[in-house]
Amino acid sequence: MWESGAARHSRLGGGDVHSHNMMDVTIAQPGELNRDVLDCAETLVRSAFGHSFRTHDWLHGVDGVHVLVTENGQLLAHASVVARSLCHDGEVFTAGYVGGVAVRNDQQGRGLGRVVMDHAEAIIQAQHQLGALNAVDTAAPFYAARGWLPWRGHTQADTPDGVVDTYDPDDQIFVLPAGVSVDRLSDSTPLICDWRVGDLW
Questions:
Q1: DSSP 195
Q2: What PROSITE patterns does UniProt report for this protein, alphabetically (predicted)?
Q3: Which of 14, 48, 72, 195 is deepest in the core (most CB within 10 A)?
Q4: What letter does residue 155 receive in the DSSP assignment?
Q5: CB neighbourhood size of 172 (10 A)
């Protein structure tokens, strides 16, 4: 099921995930996963986020690079990194936007979230200038502990109707400098994301 397209596979021993079993990590480029695998990943992510997770939330990540952790053919954890553009103070940066980070409920506590984020962050460092994500409240400390920086300034979006304010008290935007020094990201200037259907951040 997991041998889809030209996806790159690696195997992690138990020491990496606090288990005696062997974990397979798949890094799949856009278009490499078949429908069965994508459906399985969507089911996992929906189960993790509950009723607040909507169809467009999943679709935002479908065309990204997928990180999947499996064990004995079962999907245990997932994340995606989508190429987006972020603008700040007149500069446009390539960004790896992380979404769909989920661990199967009965596999919590095994370090699988750390595993998928290790790979997601490696993708960002290799391919983008910034990482970005919008965390749920319970996950914010996890990202902060990994070195992600909470964005304290205003946020906007470059929409078909022009640049609009995107302030939402429920948003918890984090950024991860990759090819960009954190000194270039003053929170006195809005961070502007590109347009997409549904939630903009």
A1: P
A2: GNAT (PS51186)
A3: 48
A4: E
A5: 18
The three-class DSSP label of residue 196 is coil
Distances (CA, A) of 161 to 82, 158, 167, 178: 23, 8, 17, 30
Q: How far is CA 175 from the centre of its chain?
A: 11
Under a CB-based contact definition with an 8 Å cutoff, are residues 111 and 71 in contact? no
Q: pLDDT for 97-148, tens place per residue?
A: 999 999 999 999 999 999 999 999 999 999 999 999 999 999 999 999 999 9
- CA atoms of 51 and 60, how far apart (whole Å): 17
Cα–Cα distances in Å, from 116 out to 17, 101, 123, 158? 11, 8, 11, 30
Q: What is the pLDDT of residue 13?
A: 43
User: In which domain, by residue range, is 142 found?
Assistant: 8-193
H helices of 50-192, in order, are 55-62, 112-127, 140-145
| Residue 68 belongs to a domain | yes
What number of residues does the chain have?
A: 201
Alpha helix positions (H), 11-67 = 14-17, 35-49, 55-62
> pTM of this prediction?
0.89
* pLDDT tens sequence across 16-30: 333 435 789 999 999
- Flag whether 198 is in a domain: no
C-alpha to C-alpha distances, 52 to 8, 64, 111, nearest whole angstrom: 32, 21, 24
